[in-house]
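Re-run with default settings, no changes from the original entry. Doing this only to confirm the output is reproducible before filing.
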Amino acid sequence: MNREKGLNIASKIVLCILLAVLSFFILGRYLSAPDTYANIFESIDSKVQSVLKLTASSTAASAGITAIPGDIGTPIAEKLADFSEYGILILCVLYAEKYLLTILGSGVFRYILPAVCILYTLSFFRNFDSLKPILQKIAAVSLALFFVIPLSIHVSDKIYNTYQASIDSTISAAEELAEDTALLSEAGEDQNAIQKVLGVLSESTTSLAERGGEILNRFIESLAVMIVTSCLIPLLVLFFSVWLVNQILGINISVRFPRRRLPTRAKHPSVLPTVTDDPDP
């Protein structure tokens, strides 16, 4: 029985050493190279280009709407101008995903997993049974964090590809509106020139403002798609991965603090000694 137990422990030790060597020298080198994620980088770059085009076209459309005579398009132009702030936020998330891939690949497979395997091997000699579940959870959480970005990008591509045609048409509509209103900005405050430009465009100030409102609604839809695919889905995948790890390798660590005894007050005698008057001599 002891021999079988010893062989079992020896096989686990050899397996841990092999996993540490494989993770550090092979997987760590492969998964920390940028060429490994060429397809993922291409997907991220396409979203970055879409965000840049949306931001540029919204800024151009906002400047063009302000050229419409009167204040009819001012609220729409202000809303379109705000899209650049959201675009910067989405760009930060996309670039963070892009660079975290190689950082997590190197950190997880070259440092965390080999360290976990070495500590797990040492636990057999020191009989640290309480340390083994913690090491298993660290390894599982590290792997979950590494696979969050590839899984989230794979899921988000399904949604993004569905709405990509709509996003491209929104950009084209905004650029077209900017070109049409550029003639109005050249006309300045000359009413005759403005009327000639509106006649050439077969438009009125009201119709141009309505076009701006439609473009604003389409920008809101495109922005919602980009936020969902770039920000929301990675968070949902992360929460689901952590929840799944907790369900599979849940560890309830209860920390008990020693109770401090409050200093007890000195007990006063319930019956005080009676003082008797001395009898008169």
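DSSP finds seven helices and no strands in the chain. Residues 251-258, 262-281 have pLDDT under 50 and may be disordered.
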